[in-house]
Specification:
The complex is a heterodimer of chains A (327) and B (251). Chain A is mainly alpha-helical. Chain A has 15 helices and no strands. In chain A, helix 4 runs parallel beside helix 6, helix 4 crosses helix 11 and helix 8 packs antiparallel against helix 11. By secondary structure, chain B is of the alpha/beta class. In chain B, helix 3 packs across helix 4, helix 3 runs parallel beside helix 5 and helix 5 runs parallel beside helix 6. The longest helix of chain B has 14 residues. Chain B is globular. Classes of the chains: A mainly alpha (327), B alpha/beta (251). Chains A and B meet through helix 1, helix 8, helix 9 and helix 10 of A and helix 2, helix 3 and helix 4 of B.
């Protein structure tokens, strides 16, 4: 590619493409086509948002973490405890507080943890999450401990739209709207100069230092933003299902979101969409067909992805498209 | 002659009992073409690391434009005009050439912290990056990823990134290292064509390159300055020939 072509590519990369409407149209279509599966659909939307938050730190900034459920859980417990103990059950302001709490937690832990990297960082993020999980377990007076808090009630959204306990219609559209808003914000962020500099940090930390970038400040900021988004995902999860328990903070959820992102393809935003849908569909169908051995199916899929599709499903699609063109 | 841009006074660095820099007094004038040579392990890269702030000296001072920058963080020194290339490529391997240079330019123009405006709308950043890519004859490769480029052309990207920082002092750490000899003339020409206002300190083992390029040469041995002088003085210096140059000049 020549210089003018490369410049044009760089200057137009942030523009919206027509195909980017597809996931949203599909999500709206699913609302009408599968009215009996909206609880499942809500779960998918929540996990997409959670995976997107992870994509910012892992896919763009190259920060490897195994403890991202810490922030999902922080957001989840924030709205749950506000509703249960303070009578604060207005959903949108709850989301804002959840984002703030999770974001501050990300800022504080990022400021300490991001001095390290690689395996050390991986272990420390894991430990942070385990600490939070233990805290939620110990202070059972506030958190409900191991049993969590069932039967939480939230006010109608904007005072008008009641949460729909049976069919999840409101929850689905609510989760979709929140996901859309967060996605737009994240898309703006990753295409900004700040977002590009995160990619630089991922590609070569030393070089980024050497061009005079405040590397650690950028990493911590990205980590905090990502934590806030994960917190929003956790909050929506609790508002939609009206319960919370320790599973929101657990390793299984942290590993799950990592698998989703790797399955879909990281560092490209849309990988979160594809990954979450594929993973949860797989889990859903496999656990119905083989209730005892469904994780085996997930495991085999992962091995195949790791061996033959390093960049996930979307990476595989890219490769196939390229091969098709070269013909 | 013009004003002193960089000065070190008694610059020393010790790692335990190992002294890798011993009381280095060094001066560089604005726009200078200076080479730092010496046998392996003489402390050349250590000296560069002390200048850029990657290492903190045990003793001594680094002055830039008469201002003490000894305690300044590396990123701050970049802002003051010290840029470097690395002995082993430090590039954004998965990104296109243009993007590599644009990341450096964006930092210099203060765009890097902007979380809202699309990077693609910073026409100033892209134009300047494009100009540098052209300057180093990388135009045809502008859209190619670094890991698709031959090593010699990658070395040019190193230089383009450093120039993107608009340095007053450019430190070239073995710019020709690792390049097959068939390609080394590319780097040689690029270095010869560097803007004259930039002071250049080059570390290099390729004596052909050193004697063609540098007006003054400093010889470092065992962490201390062994000799310093013009090209001709160093070439004529018997001790230098004995400890380092050997037969390289006779060839």
């Amino acid at each position: 590619m020549s210089l003018p072509a490369a410049t044009l590519e760089a200057a137009t990369r942030h523009r919206l493409r027509a195909w980017e409407a597809l996931p949203w149209l599909a999500a709206l279509g699913a609302f009408f086509l599968f009215p009996d599966y909206l609880a499942f659909g809500t779960q998918v939307l929540v996990m997409i948002l959670f995976a997107l938050s992870l994509d910012l730190v892992l896919g763009y900034a190259g920060i490897v973490t195994l403890g991202h459920a810490a922030f999902f859980g922080a957001g989840a417990y924030t709205v749950a405890m506000l509703a249960a103990h303070a009578g604060w059950n207005e959903p949108l302001s709850g989301l804002a507080v959840a984002a703030l709490v999770a974001g501050l937690l990300g800022l504080a832990s990022g400021w300490v943890l991001l001095r390290t990297h690689g395996l050390t960082l991986l272990m420390l993020t894991l430990c942070t999450m385990a600490l939070l999980e233990q805290a939620a377990n110990m202070f059972s007076g506030f958190t409900g401990g191991f049993d969590g808090m069932p039967g939480l009630a939230f006010q109608p959204i904007l005072g008008r739209f009641e949460f729909d306990v049976l069919y999840f219609r409101t929850q689905y559209l609510y989760a979709l709207a929140v996901l859309f808003a967060c996605f737009i914000a994240l898309r703006v962020l990753v295409h900004s100069s700040f977002g590009r500099s995160l990619t630089g940090i991922r590609e070569n930390l030393l070089r980024m230092h050497a061009v005079g970038a405040p590397v650690r400040a950028r990493q911590v900021l990205a980590y905090a933003v990502s934590a806030a988004l994960a917190g929003v995902a956790g909050a929506v999860f609790v508002q939609a299902t009206s319960y919370v328990n320790l599973a929101v903070l657990g390793l299984e959820r942290a590993a799950g979101v990592l698998i989703i992102l790797i399955l879909g393809g990281y560092g490209r935003l849309y990988g979160a969409f594809v990954g979450a849908l594929a993973y949860l569909l797989l889990e859903h169908t496999l656990s119905k067909a083989y209730p005892t051995a469904w994780q085996l199916g997930i495991g085999i899929t992962l091995v195949l992805v790791a061996l033959y599709a390093r960049n996930g499903i979307l990476g595989l699609a890219d490769a196939l498209r390229r091969r098709w063109r070269e013909r | 002659m013009s004003a002193v841009l960089l000065e070190t006074q008694g610059l020393s660095k010790r790692f335990g009992a190992l002294e890798v820099a011993r009381g280095i007094d060094f001066r560089l004038e604005a726009g200078a073409r200076h080479a730092l040579i010496g046998p392996n392990g003489a402390g050349k890269t250590t000296f560069v690391n002390l200048l850029t702030g990657v290492l903190a000296p045990t003793d001594g001072r680094v002055l830039l434009d008469g201002e003490d920058v000894t305690r300044l963080a590396p990123a701050k020194r970049v802002k003051r005009g010290i840029a470097r290339t690395f002995q082993i490529n430090q590039l954004f391997r998965g990104l296109p050439v243009l993007e590599n240079v644009a990341l450096a330019v964006a930092e210099r123009l203060g765009a890097g912290g902007d979380m809202v405006r699309p990077a693609g709308r910073r026409a100033d950043v892209l134009a300047e990056a494009g100009r540098l890519v052209e300057l180093l004859h990388l135009g045809a490769d502008a859209g190619r990823r670094i890991d698709e480029l031959p090593y010699g052309r990658q070395r040019l990207v190193e230089i383009a990134i450093a120039l993107g920082l608009e340095p007053r002092l450019l430190l070239l750490d073995e710019p020709a290292a690792g390049i097959p000899s068939a390609e080394s003339h590319i780097v040689l020409e690029a270095i010869a064509a560097l803007p004259p206002a930039i002071a250049v300190l080059i570390i290099e083992h390729d004596m052909d390159l050193v004697f063609r390029f540098a007006e003054r040469i400093t010889v470092l041995v065992g962490g201390a300055i062994f000799a310093e002088g013009t090209r001709a003085e160093i070439a004529a210096n018997r001790e230098v020939r004995a400890v380092y140059l050997g037969t390289a000049l006779d060839a």
